[in-house]
Amino acid sequence: MGFEAFVAARGAALVRFAILLTGDDHRAEDLVQEALAKAYLRWSSIRRADDPEVYVRRLVLNGSRSWWRRRTNREVPVERAPDGTAPGDLSLESADRDELWRLVAALPLKQRAVVVLRYYEDLDDAAIAQVLECSPTTVRTHAMRALTRLRGRLDADGRSAAEETA
């Protein structure tokens, strides 16, 4: 498969993967663009590999890690935006989904990557291990820790929301 055909076939999926990793559409597009630029330079050797998509996903993941290490990265995530939305503007389902993604975005990078690859991209442990360059056991450990953390946060948020309404 040629580079252009690969980008046409898998480009949107790579951007979705990056959005879920970063939580920012623009940064995700930049990450994918940088990864594809690096892949283009080595495409002849990458396409001979077993699965070029694994290689490109790894480039996106490593690019995400590198972004957090940059000195110019001075953005500080906040729990809520200063200008809140008016009550009733969003449906309950949309608000719940947004809250869940905020919790997923707060996970450490490897845990977040496992959650995204497993539950959004529907990859099995072996494929995730290949992308993250670790063992399937490590993937399961990251998944267990991520789900435990998410459940704990959801329980804590659920109790505090119930206490506020009472």
Automatic annotation (TrEMBL):
SUPFAM superfamilies: Sigma2 domain of RNA polymerase sigma factors (SSF88946), Sigma3 and sigma4 domains of RNA polymerase sigma factors (SSF88659)
Family from the record: Belongs to the sigma-70 factor family. ECF subfamily.
One matching Pfam family: Sigma70_r2
Species this protein is from: Dactylosporangium cerinum
Keyword annotations of the record: DNA-binding, Sigma factor, Transcription, Transcription regulation
Record-annotated RNA polymerase sigma factor 70 region 4 type domain positions: 98-150
Domain (RNA polymerase sigma-70 region) ranges: 11-72
Name of the protein: SigE family RNA polymerase sigma factor
Keyword Cytoplasm belongs to the record: no
InterPro entries: RNA_pol_sigma-70-like, RNA_pol_sigma-70_dom, RNA_pol_sigma-E_actinobac, RNA_pol_sigma70_r2, RNA_pol_sigma70_r4_t2, RNA_pol_sigma_r2, RNA_pol_sigma_r3/r4-like, WH-like_DNA-bd_sf
